[in-house]
């Protein structure tokens, strides 16, 4: 689990830095695959790619194991099973990301065109394909909304151990979780746009989200803000690597960040009275 969060954080650091550099130097911000390819050209690139690939595979294994043994304590009712199914989907996605890093490592990452666009084109060719693509987008928007809600309500604090570091980093962690939700929601919107216009090339991942934001009013600032948010989310991943609590294995003596904050708020309220 901890190795997985480190690997996940590393890829977001690279994407955010490259996107910021590209947008302010007149270039085009790229997505995950392009970021991996950019790493490969650096002297330290092979070692970092290997770390990212292993980390992403570790994260995939963690999500799969957490779903099967319900380590996040979601339960076996309808809502819990949906959440655990989401963990399986996340595991599959991160296997794909790890595979992309491995492909770049062995020098076979030269296929032209977006794999997401190709997959969307294939889905659209099926009966009711445009509706299916639209549903994929709607699910992603829902997932993005979940992350935004999780960040704004600070629900994530129940999953972190209370320490001086996690207390100080609360604002950055909140911004990171919200930014991740915005990214997922934008990607979902692009899928719906692709279905509406019957144009699979409109669908895509992070690269497509950056492109769409860049074309909007104040696009440079929007991309920069999103890149800063992704850096914050990378920090969120690194903090999880160190202080994540596994609900099913939690010791009652461990105080969560949420409990510490609530305790501080109650003490402050008593002092005011």
Please tell me about this protein's structure.
The protein has about 270 residues and is mainly alpha-helical. The chain has helices at about 1-25, 30-40, 45-70, 80-105, 115-125, 130-150, 165-170, 170-195, 205-215, 220-245, 255-270. Helix 8 (about 170-195) packs across helix 10 (about 220-245). The mean pLDDT is about 85. Keywords: Membrane, Transmembrane, Transmembrane helix. This is DUF1206 domain-containing protein.
What's the short version?
Pfam families: DUF1206. This protein is mainly α.
Any descriptors?
273 residues; DUF1206 domain-containing protein; membrane; DUF1206
Counting H and I runs of at least 4 residues, what is the number of helices?
11
Beta-strand share of residues: under 5%
Order of helices and strands: HHHHHHHHHHH
* Largest sheet composition: none
Mean pLDDT: 84
Envelope shape:
globular
């Amino acid at each position: 689990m901890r190795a997985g969060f480190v690997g996940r954080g590393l890829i977001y650091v690279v994407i955010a830095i490259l996107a910021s550099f590209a947008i302010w130097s007149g270039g085009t911000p790229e997505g995950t695959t392009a970021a991996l390819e950019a790493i490969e050209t650096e002297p330290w690139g092979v070692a970092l790619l290997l770390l990212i690939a292993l980390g992403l595979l570790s994260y995939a294994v963690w999500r799969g194991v957490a779903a099967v043994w319900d380590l996040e304590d979601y339960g076996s009712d309808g809502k819990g099973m949906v959440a655990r199914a989401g963990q399986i989907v996340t595991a599959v996605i991160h296997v794909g990301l790890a595979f992309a890093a491995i492909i770049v490592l062995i020098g076979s990452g030269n296929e032209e065109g977006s794999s997401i666009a190709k997959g969307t084109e294939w889905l659209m060719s099926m009966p009711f394909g445009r509706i299916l693509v639209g549903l994929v987008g709607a699910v992603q928007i829902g997932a993005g909304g979940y992350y935004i809600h999780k960040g704004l309500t600070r629900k994530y604090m129940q999953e972190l151990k209370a320490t001086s570091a996690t207390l100080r980093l609360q604002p950055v962690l909140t911004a990171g979780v919200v930014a991740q939700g915005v990214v997922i929601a934008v990607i979902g919107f692009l899928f719906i746009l692709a279905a509406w216009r019957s144009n699979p090339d409109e669908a895509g991942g992070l690269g497509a989200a950056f492109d769409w934001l860049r074309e909007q009013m104040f696009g440079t600032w929007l991309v920069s803000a999103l890149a800063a948010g992704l850096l914050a989310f990378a920090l969120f991943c690194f903090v999880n690597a160190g202080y994540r609590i596994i609900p099913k294995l939690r010791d009652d003596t461990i105080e969560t960040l949420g409990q510490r904050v609530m305790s501080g708020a109650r003490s402050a309220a008593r002092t005011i009275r």
